[in-house]
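protien #1 (seq + structre)
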Amino acid sequence: MRLAISVEFMTVPQITIRLFPEEKEAFETYAQRFGLNCSDVAKLLISREQKLRRLRGLKRTQKLPARTRQDRGFAVAKDKITAHLRSVEEVQQFDEYAVSCGLSRDGAGAWLLQTELREKWLQRALQMR
C-alpha cells in the first residue's frame, strides 16, 4: 500500500486530485452548472465525506474502489483539481482518513469526484435540473 504524503511541513492547505482529462472536463462542466469552480465542489465533497464516511463502509465490505494502473509507455497524463481547504489540519484529517481506508489522499479524492459525476448529489441537493 502506498502511504499518503506527510503534511507535517505543508504550508498551503490543499488536496490535489488527479483525474483523466475527460473526467476533469466533465467535473468542470458539472461545477460550472452551479456557478462554482472545481475547487469549491471538491472541497464540499471532501467535507461531506468526512461526515458520511462512505469509504470506510466500502472498506468494511471489501468493496473499495480499485484505481486501474496504466500500462507503462501508454500512460495518459492526468489533470489536476486542487481543493483549497481552510487549514493544514483539515488536510491532515482527510489524509489520515484516506489511509485508514487503504487509499491515498489522491485516490480517495478521485473516488469522491468520480462518484459525484455518477450520483449527482449536489444537483439533487440544490434541486437544479
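ok now protien #2
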Amino acid sequence: MRTIVVCFLFLQIYVGGFSQYCEEFKDRNFPSFPTSVKPMTTGWVINTNFSDEFNTLNSSKWQIIGDPNIICHPMSPSAYFSDEPGNVSVGSGKLILKVNQRNSVQCTYYNQGNPVTKMYNYSGGWIESVDPFHYGYIVMKCKLPAEIAIFPCFWMHGAEYSSGQRIAFDEIDVLEKSILSPSNSLLMQNFYLDNELPTWSTHCQRLEFNQAYVGQDALFAVEWLPEEVHFYINGNHTSSIKYTTNPNNYNSLYPDVSYFTCAYINYAVPQRFQISLSLDLTSSPNPVLTNGFEIEYIRSYKLVAGNLNEEYWPSSFSMSDVNIFKVHKSIKLGGPGHTAVIPSGENLTLWAKDSVVLKQGFTLNTGTEFIARTIKTHSDLFQ
C-alpha cells in the first residue's frame, strides 16, 4: 500500500494592543470558478439558532431593513432599501431578494458625516439577523444574478459602544460583488475594522473568475476563529486573514493561500448577518430585474470543546471516536503502545489549543487531506 502523509499546520499569531494601522488590497486571479464542491472538514457541528433553510421568513431570526422607513446607503447608489412588496420574499424553499422600479423617492444618507440627498426610482431588499453571531463556520448556498447592475452581498456587521455612542465597528464580507468595478467576474471577500473612524484599517481581497458561476448554485463561506478568518468558495479555500502586530508578517508566508494584515483584537465583536441586493445604474442604465438574488440556505456551525486543560491521547484512531474531533489542550496520535491509521478519502481536521503531535505509527492513507490546527479558543467558539 502506498502511503502519502500530508500535514498543514495553521499556526497561531497572538495580538496585543498597538497604535499603527495598515491598509492592503489584494487581487487574486483564478483560472476558473471552483465548480467542484469540497466537503466541510471535521469538527464543525450545526448551530440551528443561526441556520435557516428558508421555508418561511422567520421573524424570530430575520428583520427587513427599511421597515417601517426607507433606508438609503452609499453601497446602493441607485436604489434605497425597504420592505415594499417584492423586495424580500420566500418561495419554493428559497429566500429571494429583488430590486424593483418605484415612484421617485428622495432620501438622504451620510458619507463620512456629510449628508448626501438623492432621488431614487428603485428599491431593493436587505435583511438582517435579529441576533448577533460570534465565531464559527458560516456558509450560504445561493445563485448569483446575471444582471451586471445589481450587486448581491452576504456580510456581517458588528459595533462597539461606549456611553451610548458608537466607538468602532467591524465587518466581514463573505460575498460581495464589487460596486466599484462593475463586473460579473469580480467578487470580493473582505474585512473592515473601525471603518470611517480614526483607527480604521481594511483588508480587501478581490477574486476574478470567469462568469460560469452566474445562475448556478454556489457555496460561499467564512471560517471565523479568534484572531483568524478564512474564506471559501464551494468549500475551496480562497484566502485568509490572520492577526499580527509584527510588520515582518504583513506579507504572506503562504502566498498561494494566505495573507496577513494588521488588525486590532477588538475586531472580535459579535456581528449580525446581512443579506442585501444593491443597484448601480452606471454600468447598465436599463437593467433587467427579472431574476434576483436566490438563497437556498444559510448554515452555521460551532466547534465542540473537549478537555482544554489536558492532552488527549487515544489508543487508536477511529472516525467514530466522539472525542477525536473536539478541541483539546493538545492531541497526540501514535507513539508507544498506540496506533493511528487514518483512512482513505477523508477530509480531516484535528483541533487543539496548544499542539497536535504525530508520533511513530501515524499513517495517512491515499486520498485523505489531513490538517492539524492550533487555535486560540474562546467560549463563543463552542457549541
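The radius of gyration is 22 Å.
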